[in-house]
Every structure is written in C-alpha cells, then in structure tokens.
Amino acid sequence: MQVIYEDNHIIVVSKRSGEIVQGDKTGDEPLSETVKAYLKEKYQKPGNVFLGVVHRLDRPVSGLVVFARTSKALTRLNKMFAEGEVHKTYWAIVPPLRTEGDGGRLLTHWLTRNEQQNKSYAHDHEVPNAKKAQLRYRVLARGERYQLLEVELLTGRHHQIRCQLAAAGMPIRGDLKYGAPRSNPDGSISLLSRRVQFVHPVSGQEISLEAPLPDDPLWHKLYASLNDK
Q: Which residue of the set 7, 24, 58, 228 is catalytic?
C-alpha cells in the first residue's frame, strides 16, 4: 500500500493488484483494514479507527482508491460518487485495432450480469435486465503488440471497462475472464485506476491525484513512448 494523499477527512492510496478493497468470502485481509492499521499506528489512536469505503476496484486491478476518514466526508463522498462528481481516469493495455485512429471514441453497450460467474456480458442493443454502459477511450501510445488506452467511465457498471473493451475486440492484457489469450505472470490484469479528480468534500479544495505505474516493464515501455511523442 502506498499513500498518495492524506488529510483529516480523506486518505487516498494506491492499491496493488491482488488486494481486495473490502472484506469478502475469501477471508483475505482487505485494503480497508490495512489502511486502518496504518492510521491507528501513525496517530496512536486507541480503539477502533473509522474508515469509510466509498468505491471499489476489482481485485486484479491496481491504482487509486479513495477512503473517508470521517462520517461527514463519507456521506458527502457517497453522494459525489453517486452523482458523478468524482472523475476517474483509467489506463489499460490492450491489443491494437489498427483500423482506428488515436482520437477518442464512445462505446455504448447494455450489460447483463451473471452473479454465479461474477461476470458481465455486453449487448449492442437493449435486452431484459440490462443496464446501459458508456465509456470513452483514446489511444495514448502504440507498441509492437499492444497499445495504451486512456479510459473515462461515463457510467459505473460491474466489470464495465473489462467487458466493454473485450466486446470491442480489445480484451485487457492478462484478463482471461474477458478473452485475453494468456495471464500476466503476477496474476494482474493491465488496468490501472490512473487519475482521480474531485472537489474535497469538506474543504472545497480541488484535488487531482495520479497513481504510479505498476512494476511491469511493458507499462514503462508504453509510457516512455507516450512521452516521446
């Protein structure tokens, strides 16, 4: 866990792939408990430490996670996330579609969710029990076998980026569940919650934060080619 930002009301950390944000049936220690332990030790707090979970990242995904340190911040952040006032930008490594330019493109699907499989399915038209899903993406950099995308979520659906990019012929590198041909050595998928931007729920300050790149040579190679443009 790496702390990216911290004040009296919120804490933002960079999650590693493989960590869970909140406790689940695996019984593995979640990131929320790791953050609580960090706060308890740093501030020598007696008793339980308050920490509010306001959003999640899938286990194999890395990047920024925002937590609330006070009930006031939790209430306001929950409202901000629900109303789309927290702007999250993701980076993804995918196989290239050579027929398209680098400009932005909007993807629209209707997603259905299979709870037993913990998987979503994309449809190009409305079907029963489906939820509309939209995202924008643009190509940031191209390599020999992969390209780096910047993705902006316009809706928040289960496995949305993973499912929609796969439906568009660009399964995220390492994401076997959504059609990638092979796994990443560390079990991650090449999806990063790269940037988060919002107005601080208490102070009103503009907050803009970036996550570090995963410790994977391909991320750094594509990032270097982005800077060479």
A: 58
